[in-house]
Design brief:
Elements (H helix, E strand, L loop, with lengths): L13 E7 L4 H6 L6 E3 L7 H17 E7 L11 H9 E9 L2 E8 L9 E7 L3 E8 L10 E3 L4 E10 L7 E8 L5 E7 L16 E9 L7 E11 L8 E3 L9 E8 L1
Parallel strand pairs: 1-2, 1-3, 8-15
Antiparallel strand pairs: 3-5, 4-5, 6-7, 6-14, 7-9, 9-12, 10-11, 10-13, 13-15
């Protein structure tokens, strides 16, 4: 079987790793390449193997540029697609290939380290969630510490959440653009990743990349605004308390940026 790369890439990561989610003996018979392969999960899925599988996937995502995944569900082994769902939520599908009758999905892992976030933050939401930072789409003549946008434009950003423990409640994220009088000029409410990764499915250690796009109305007045982020219980609308990582209260929202509307 050919098609798997061997060269080293950026961040000193090896190029390719293979993940199988079913012990198919034909793979080991036909494959003689140099890319390492892992069987995940290593047995029927349980709470213990679920945690172990997630930890292994985080390990591989931090060390390889591409993950070649062979998707196969089996009632007696792994029927719920945990590995494929994890890769979808923590990576970007960049290709699909058929090699010697095997269908492969190729994922490029998203940022699983918080070292190089464009704008680092440190806000704790409740007991188990941290807003570790964000990135936003800027033009070439803008600097990373200035967000400028014109009325009618769209502000695109990605929030980086980190789960310190399992989250039992389903929370929605809200983003508000307010002026000096706390009037809301633009807003967005969404379950993380557009509904694809609800908080009650987060696991301890997860880093979640959560993209958003906020459209400013054409009649938004010029001036400085504040960009606020918060979370609320999707059932009761109760907001999570926000604090700095040192414990200082920030109320029920985090002010993450000043935005210049021009």
């Amino acid at each position: 079987m050919a098609g798997f790369g061997r060269s080293s890439g950026g961040r000193n990561r090896a190029c390719d790793v293979i993940v199988l989610n079913y012990p198919d003996p034909t793979f080991s018979y036909y494959y003689h390449g140099k890319a390492p392969s892992f069987m995940l999960p290593r047995g029927p899925l349980s709470e213990e193997t679920r945690t172990e599988t997630a930890e292994t996937l985080r390990f591989l995502s931090d060390r390889y540029e591409r993950i070649w995944f062979y998707p196969r569900k089996d009632v007696g082994w792994h029927s719920e697609g945990f590995v494929e769902t994890w890769l979808y939520r923590h990576g970007r599908l960049i290709g699909e290939r058929n090699i010697s009758g095997f269908r492969w999905l190729i994922y490029r892992p998203l940022l699983l380290s918080l070292e190089h976030i464009q704008i680092p933050l440190a806000f704790r939401f409740g007991e188990a969630i941290e807003l570790a930072g964000y990135e936003w789409e800027m033009s070439q003549d803008e600097s990373s510490d200035t967000i400028a946008i014109e009325p009618g434009g769209a502000l695109r950003l990605a929030l980086y959440w980190q789960a310190w423990d399992e989250v039992e409640t389903g929370y929605s994220v809200f983003i508000r653009l307010t002026d000096a009088y706390d009037r809301i000029w633009a807003q967005r409410d969404s379950i993380p990743q557009g509904g694809d990764f609800p908080t009650e499915e987060w696991m301890a250690g997860d880093i979640i990349v959560d993209p958003h796009s906020i459209l400013l109305p054409s009649d938004t007045p010029s001036g400085d605004c504040l960009l606020a982020v918060g979370m609320y219980d999707s059932t009761t609308d109760q907001r999570l308390p926000v604090a700095s990582t040192r414990g200082a209260s920030r109320g029920d929202r985090a002010i993450i940026a000043r935005v210049q509307v021009w």
